[in-house]
Write a structure and sequence with these properties.
The complex is a heterodimer of chains A (114) and B (111). Chain A has 114 residues and is an all-beta fold. Chain A has a single domain, classed as Immunoglobulin-like (Sandwich). Chain A has no helices and eleven strands. Chain A has strands spanning 5-7, 10-13, 19-24, 31-38, 42-50, 53-56, 65-69, 75-79, 88-95, 104-105, 109-113. In chain A, strands 2, 4, 5, 6, 9, 10 and 11 form a seven-stranded mixed β-sheet that branches. Chain A has a four-stranded antiparallel β-sheet with strand order 1-3-8-7, with no helix packed on it. The termini of chain A are far apart. By secondary structure, chain B is mostly beta strands. Chain B contains no helices and eleven strands. Chain B has strands at residues 4-6, 11-14, 19-25, 30-38, 45-51, 54-58, 61-66, 71-76, 85-93, 100-101, 105-110. In chain B, a hairpin with a 6-residue loop joins strand 9 and strand 10. Classes of the chains: A mainly beta (114), B mainly beta (111).
Chain lengths: 114, 111
């Protein structure tokens, strides 16, 4: 596809369960970013990948959050032992390179923790 | 104080009006400035991408950057109901990759 693709679009799960969110960036984009959007906090940076490496994980809220990227393409964000405060929209973006480049976003995964 | 402040809105205008959206920022290292449009239950869509001070026009959209005042604006001319969305400003320092976003302004264009 032409744009950033994220799946699932919606996820409802019980507190304490693990969830995996997937992002497929724009073809040819080497940089990939995860953000979280919630009502009170706006858009917050979580983690950045250049290729398969994650030089900046500074935005991950806790050690329950992890992410990986394989083949310089698809990325997975995993949240273990989910808590109600993890409820938010998780957005993925990609760019041609990393610095000074516009980022293009997917439509996000809307995560609800019951 | 947040790094990027955006006029909260909401904003409601009649069709055909000019929409004016504004953000201020405190980090003088910001060099790249963006405006995104976000429809309900969709991701942010890049509208404008500008570097340093000045104006940039694209169709009905004009982005202005005033680095001396740390102030950016987006103007939408001849607004249409399809322009009804939340508009987010975002900015980035040179040789950086992390975007800092405003909180967003929700705009409704009444037919």
């Amino acid at each position: 596809g032409a744009g950033v693709s994220q799946s699932p679009s919606n996820k409802v799960t019980e507190k304490g369960k693990d969830v995996e969110l997937r992002c497929d960036p724009i073809s040819g984009h080497t940089a990939l970013y995860w953000y979280r959007q919630s009502l009170g906090q706006g858009l917050e940076f979580l983690i950045y990948f250049q290729g398969n490496s994650a030089p900046d994980k500074s935005g991950l809220p806790s050690d329950r959050f992890s992410a990986e990227r394989t083949g310089g393409s698809v990325s997975t964000l995993t949240i273990q032992r989910t808590q109600q405060e993890d409820s938010a929209v998780y957005l993925c973006a990609s760019s041609y390179r990393d610095s000074n480049q516009p980022q293009h976003f997917g439509d996000g995964t809307r995560l609800s923790i019951l | 104080q947040k790094e990027v402040e955006q006029d909260p809105g909401p904003l409601s205008v009649p069709e055909g009006a000019i929409v004016s959206l504004n953000c201020t920022y405190s980090n003088s290292a910001f060099q790249y400035f963006m405006w995104y449009r976000q429809y309900s239950r969709k991701g942010p869509e890049l509208l404008m991408y500008t570097y340093s001070s000045g104006n940039k026009e694209d169709g009905r959209f004009t982005a202005q950057v005033d680095k001396s005042s740390k102030y950016i604006s987006l103007f939408i001319r001849d607004s249409q109901p399809s322009d009804s969305a939340t508009y987010l400003c975002a900015m980035m320092s040179s040789n950086d990759y992390k975007l800092s976003f405003g909180a967003g302004t929700t705009v409704t264009v009444r037919a």
